Amino acid sequence: RMQGRPVWKKHLITYRINNYTPDMQPEDVDYAIQKAFQVWSNVTPLKFRKVNSGEADIMILFASRAHGDFSPFDGRGGIIAHAFGPGPGIGGDTHFDEAEIWTKTYKGTNLFLVAVHELGHSLGLGHSSDPKAIMFPTYSYVNPNTFHLSADDIQGIQSLYGGPGKHQLPSNTDGTESDNCDSNLSFDAVTTVGDKIFFFKDRFLWWRHPESPKNSVTLISSLWPTLPSGIQAAYEIGARNQVFLFKDDKYWLISNMRPQPHYPKNIHSLGFPDSVKKIDAAVFNPLLYKTYFFVDNQFWRYDEKTQFMDPGYPKLITKYFPGIRPTIDAVYYYNRHYYFFQGPDIFEYDVISHRITKRPKQNIMSGC
Amino acid sequence: VPLTNSINSEENNETYAQRYLENFYGFVMDRIPKAKMGVNGNFMEDKIQEMQKFLGLKVTGKLDASTLDMMHMPRCGLPDVHHFS
Lengths: 368, 85
Known about the structure:
The structure holds two protein chains of two kinds.
Chain A: E1 12-17, H1 26-41, E2 47-50, E3 58-63, E4 79-83, E5 94-97, E6 102-103, E7 109-110, H2 111-122, H3 151-161, E8 189-193, E9 196-201, E10 204-208, E11 215-219, H4 220-223, E12 233-237, E13 242-247, E14 250-255, E15 258-259, E16 265-266, E17 281-285, E18 290-295, E19 298-303, E20 308-309, E21 315-316, H5 317-320, E22 330-334, E23 337-342, E24 345-350, E25 355-358
Chain B: H1 2-25, H2 37-54, H3 65-71, E1 75-76
């Protein structure tokens, strides 16, 4: 903690990006900064709102050499950024040295990683002597997709603000929440993960045991800060402890609940033609060791052993899955059945007899 | 030529280290009377030790290679310990 233990006295904090580095696309800067704030909001009751004019609590700028705060930057290398602890005026402000080469990758200086560190100062954290902490004073690259705060970082920030309150969960967020008792509720993606079923919807994630009525909900970003919201398809290869998540033309691998390095990858590396821009739903069949990918009214089959698409695909969904309508929102495999989600409807489909065996009530989540 | 380079390099390292310790560990070179250079030397050694301890280096009090390497790494401009409790 900083001397005098400065903290923000409120939980809704505004920030403004005063100017942009020419090293990156402005939208990439916006994304890196937003994700960096999200890292801290995930573990505290704090919320951050971007404003585009006027004075924000945290003003963010890129500057070279002397820039009006008596702490001039020193050219490329050396000092790469600094920030001021919570307070009025310059308090909380974060400055990045424009002499560095700012990037969203491992090249140059990764803006997201430095922003997480500097915003830690903006919230009242000092430097950590733990080399694993993001608040360690020197910069070293770690994959943003696998990045997570250290225990020291979390203990530090929670000693100032406490942990995330229940209000971070859907019931009191900014109006985009889903009502899990809505009879018309549809899901973006559903998959088993170990002994649980994960349901993805917008930026939320519910999970429950297949045989239990109890469910829990969280933000996708709370579990995996670097993953996007709006996951469109998901499937699990249980024997490998692998879960694949899809959004648009990208997919991520989660292994043992941790996002893996070298992802996201492009879906076309799986063998899809260029005309496929996104996957609607996916499911792994452990009996065949093959994965079905559903795109519009067609499906592909991927051999997980050979890592190639099976020849002869795509095929029409309605022809090979009798009773299932042409487009599929989500599907998961459990106990020799597929569970297809189409809008508010769910179909239990026997993988051996190839027919619909049940139409469970929509109220798949407890309390509905 | 190698001897001269070596001396210059040592001076540069020391100057760089002094500035680093001033910036991040509250080392104040100017306030120490020149007559007490011995004390100054110890004070700088103390500050090097403080830095080495904080950053998880081997605590030698000397400007060894790993300490100088750490001093040359890109870093945040805030002091490591001076302003913090």
